[in-house]
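Hello,

Our lab assistant flagged a job as stuck in the queue for most of the afternoon. It eventually completed. Since we weren't sure the result was trustworthy after the delay, we are filing this so someone can double-check. Below is the sequence as submitted and the structure that was eventually returned. Let us know if re-running is recommended.
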Amino acid sequence: MPTYLCHGFRWRRRSIRVYVVIQDLDDAAPEWITTPGSARCFIESFYSLFDFLPDCTLPPTGASSAATLPSPTSHAHHAPPSPPSSQPLLSSLSQLSGAGFGPDSVAAQDWSPVKLLEEYDPSNLDEVSRPHAYVADYITRIDSSCDIFDEIQRYETRVKQDSNPAVTGPSAQDRLSNPEKNTTDHKARSGWLEKLRNQLQVDADVQWYIVVNGGEDRPW
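-- returned structure --
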């Protein structure tokens, strides 16, 4: 089953359903937000509401050409691309989806700094979907063993170099070595992913997750 290393927060299913109703998103699938067309619908909705998100370019659909999605005030900065891994065991999402590994809903979101992810265990017949999905700024697919700490360190190095970072809090290493580190300054200058969390699921933690999704190919 596809397995991902994900940096983001959990968006509870009830909150997703409420968001879809309030925002009147006809093309969004609240029970499986990465359904074809659904992820794009959610992301376009985020950009129509929140002026702190980095600019992104929509991929063309049919005969249409690519279009830029600025934030409402057009003052956002471009986010850096997801950091490429130096380890061959962490394959490119785009390459995976086109190399016989099966459909990959995350690869279809390569155009967006904001990424959505679902998790699912097909052996659990008591659930149609999990109680939450994920909203992330970084996702990479893991098809073999890898050094997770190296991957996280590469991510955090790039975030520190970004003028408009997704997060501004202490690094994972800092939190492990000094869990009581003062975060007052961090709260005063949150990154764009933290601001998005505050709008969608204010009590959720932005952190690292290993996510397994055994239900990638869903027609509904």
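-- support follow-up --
The delay was a queue issue, not a problem with the job. The result is valid. The helical segments are 13-23, 38-49, 93-97, 148-161, 172-177, 184-188, 192-200. The two ends are 19 Å apart (CA to CA).
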